[in-house]
Amino acid sequence: MSPIVITVLVLVGIALLVAIGYINHLVENRKLEQARLKADLSDRCRRCADVSESLPGQFMSPALKLLLSGFELNLSERLLAVDKQNPALKQRMEELRGLVAKGEAIPVKNAPQPILTEAKAKDVRFLFEALHAQLTRCAQDNMLPRAEAQKWVKEIRHLLTLLHIEFFGNLGQQALQQGQPRQARLAFERGAQYLQKQPEIGRYQAQLKQMEAQLAHANALVLETSQPAADEQSELGDGLKALDEDDIWKKKNLYD
């Protein structure tokens, strides 16, 4: 065998090894990308379902239920392309198709859940935060028109305000029932301050007047009792302040 033939064979062998290595690299990258996409879509489906099922009934409407079901169905269809052998996913998609087909007549089975503690208020606020995140991602993926996304961002802000109103009101009423007018005054005061800071304050005039009336009542009860303690902030005050200051809408909003 001549040196030229040997050289050609060696070069061909090297080229084949390089080609095989490159193809293996592409295959591995594709597998990694598929795994990443599968994990991302699975997580987004789970979050949509969690918000849809866990949000208290007083904050869930047929329109919002329909929106979340549509998001989950769209994401599930994309997930099925990379997870074809998933019977649970196929069954869930059939359920979602049935729900979405009902339109505004979609059933809302979420039971109302009273917001009586700081922990419960934060749990619900985290659900709103998750909803906002999924809304943003779906809008970026062109699953929702920009105008529609802006409308829902405003609606989530409104729901968050209702959450604060219920929380501060319930906390104040609890304190009154427990004979703690100072703590009640603090809760109602926080509620009134929160409402006064809302950009659409006119929308909440009735709730603001009620909160201010409750504040005046609690303040009158305090004046009837002994002098206020030197330090009125307590654990309740700190918790109310923390909830107020940790408002997700203080973050930059993509749709402002």
UniProtKB/TrEMBL annotation:
Transmembrane segments: 6-27
Keywords from the named record: Membrane, Transmembrane, Transmembrane helix
Protein name (database record): DNA repair protein
